[in-house]
Amino acid sequence: MGKFFVSILKVIVAVVAINLLASFLYTRFDLTEDKRYTLSEPAVAVAQKFETPVIVDVLLDGNIPAEFSKLKTETIQLLESFGSKNSNIKYNLVDPMEDSGNPQETVAQLQSLGLQPANVTVEENGKVSNELVFPWAMVNYNDQTVKVPLLKNKLGSTAEERINNSVQQLEYAFADAFTKLSIEEKKSIAVIKGNGELDDVYIADYLTTIRDYYNIGAITLDSVASNPQNVLDQLKNFDLALIAKPTEAFTDQEKYVMDQYMVQGGKSIWMLDQVNMEMDSIYAGGGEAIAVPRDLNLKDLFFKYGVRINPVLVNDLYFTQIVLASGEGNDSQYNPLPWFYYPMVFSQNNHPINTNIEAVRLQFTSPMDILENDYQKTILLQSSPLSKTDGIPRVVSLDMINQQPDQETYNNGNLPLAVLIEGNFTSMYKNRVKPLKLQNTLEEGPENKMIVISDGDVIKNQLRNGRPLELGYDKWTNSFYGNKEFLVNSTNYLLDNTGLINIRNKKVAIPLLDVKKIAEQKNKWQLVNIGFPVVLTLLFGLFFGYYRKRKFTA
């Protein structure tokens, strides 16, 4: 009997020694197939920058639905991984509704901070209830706080897909937040003006979002007529130029300045409408308006880079909705109706820019031809397989809502709508007469990249009482689209030199429990979990008693 207790004592001493050693020599082994607990090098690099405490408040404590418990577990494990790389990164679990005397007031306060809740339907024991969950984290560093959304919704996704999408973006979401807090020198973005671009109020939400990463300024191209060299010199102080829905043609001189800016290394995002058509024109015209081409004098510029935007309209059976009123006065009703000229564009997940994003809403967009040349071109957005083109000029009428579309004619789909162009940029004026004289011009430039989107409204946020709403939110249908995430990802990709954006390509697969099987086998597994340990204890007691009796009566 003495040898038995000595063996037990040795085991206890060994366990204590191993735990003490582990506290000094900490390491982790990631045995998952998708390596979801192994941080990417860019994420590690940004996490290691902090020399003072970073406190992450995770708002997923308390009684939360099962699917959010999995998200909570994955979030904690990820933050522990970050903490293993930098001990200054710590986390707290917070129940935002704990000790809340007035839940409605608490919810309103959280929403005023931009923390939108998730409304979850919970079914338990045949009873259905709705619960509000705040799937957010707050990263606090010095006197700064960055919000991190933990839940990733995608249109039509199942509960399992929603959790997979959410876990897949966690590493990037936290690495992105750490980047915002650790930026020491911001890059600069120039908002191009002078050719009838969107007013600032219509791009306000996008600019507010990227202000955490970048400095923002404005450059007016119509000054090229009086002092082109000064405009180019000012423009070269910016890392990226943003051209948001110009409505007036560029002069050859303005085009040459932009050409030299890009050839000399400036990144750019072009959002262009080749067709002049607006919903406001249709409403003002009594339900119809004529769509006509819009000449921006940019065809030869983009042709040089292997892209041609065709002045026709994309008509897509994967559409978003518009809202029309019927009735008068107090009897008015607002009905969401299909609008085939507003495509709902689902991501191909073929690039870090568009991986795991919500569907993007485009308005009166045009298809692009991709031409063969030395530049690498990646199609970031394209129409659905069930789409076609409508030529212009044409009358666009609200009557099309009442007409049944002929699906057999929708056989010219997968039309490119947004393209990334990369390579060593060459001036379109190479071996040509220059429209004006500039100093230190180049005909062959370094490695560069730009994005062309054939819709100027992709960046346009709606207004309510004159104030900008979130980009991608449609106040008429209360729907959210992925426009802002797509554009922010595009900007970060063009300007990111750390490779952080590539974390978005990481794929994970989270095995979830079968809810139906849980309900069917609930009693069985409760009995196993509760009864089996009791039976095992009784058997051990009987065996030990029998052993002692035999030992001491022998």
UniProtKB/TrEMBL annotation:
Location of the ABC-type uncharacterised transport system domain: 186-490
Keywords: Membrane, Transmembrane, Transmembrane helix
InterPro entries the record matches: ABC_transp_unknown (IPR019196), DUF7088 (IPR055396), Motility-assoc_ABC-rel_GldG (IPR019863)
Domain DUF7088: 33-139
Transmembrane segment boundaries: 6-26, 527-547
Keyword Ribonucleoprotein: no
Name of the protein in its database record: Gliding motility-associated ABC transporter substrate-binding protein GldG
Source species: Flagellimonas yonaguniensis
Gene name of the encoded protein: gldG
